[in-house]
Write a structure and sequence with these properties.
Elements: E1 18-23, E2 27-36, E3 39-49, E4 55-56, E5 59-60, H1 63-77, E6 83-88, E7 96-100, H2 106-120, E8 128-134, E9 145-153, H3 154-166, E10 170-176, H4 177-189, E11 195-199, E12 204-207, E13 214-215, H5 225-232, E14 243-246, H6 252-263, E15 267-269, E16 277-278, H7 290-300
Parallel strand pairs: 1-6, 3-16, 6-10, 11-14, 14-15
Antiparallel strand pairs: 1-2, 2-3, 4-5, 7-9, 8-9, 11-12, 12-13
Helix pairs in contact: 4-7
Amino acid sequence: MFHFLTRFPLSPASFRPRLGLDVGPRHLRLAILRRRRSQLQLYGLAEHRFGQVICRHGRITDLDLLCNAARAMLTQCRFSDGVLGMALGLHAAAAVPLTLPAAASDLQRLAQVQAEMALRHPQSPDELVAHYCPLDEAMTAGEDVRVIALFASMVDIEDRCALASSLQLRPGVIALRETRIATFLRQAHQAPRAGILHVDLDEAWLDLPGRWVHHFEWSAQNDRPATLLHALAPLLQPPPELLLLSGDAPMLATLAQVIGKYSDRPTQIATLSPRFCDMRHHGDPTPAFHAALALAAGALA
């Protein structure tokens, strides 16, 4: 299945580590978290940059190279046991927004999503895995539920499971990357109505509560920030209560300043407070690590 809900027994203090592994086109980022009561504890961060593309549109292009780099990072962090959380982005699955009946059970909703997959991809039912994620909660009893239907490639799922097996880690959740990051940052700021603008070197997307994730045709490496701002402006009407920025693009601070000025709403780079996450031995992680941290935190849920 696309979303592995397998749970493993934890120690009495729930100290078994959870690892988040963020696989990008030319980078690999690792975060290791534990939970103590309601607080996360950061136990390790590591990053490896490759001289070649190792993941293109969610498809791992060199699994052996990726496994070797990940193994070296675990050795660097002195961890060899735990549950591994990984992700696929919307671009790696044929994602479709659907509205499902509120009265339907989880199995009935999955059956509807599978039927939608068969309708849209009749030639490749054995090559895809159907899954769905809630887009928002029904406001009142009886309301229909909006979901994101995902039709992920079996190859992409199997490669990520093979990566976990190679590292001798237990596979936790192969999640939707955008949803994981947005949920994690809203929890960190205790701001459930916040918008999330994630800007990496190779992609940018906006997640607003109750709306479909919007990916921009924009690259921090090739395009001007003004182009992104122009595309962003109509999507921020009306503006969210708070806009949080994340990602590994170098111009986050400039974007936050400009967007805040013109939207007249609080806009800032997302951070992790000491109350939310104990980081005393590592300092505040840069926004580039938010994806790996979100995946580790998701594996703790």
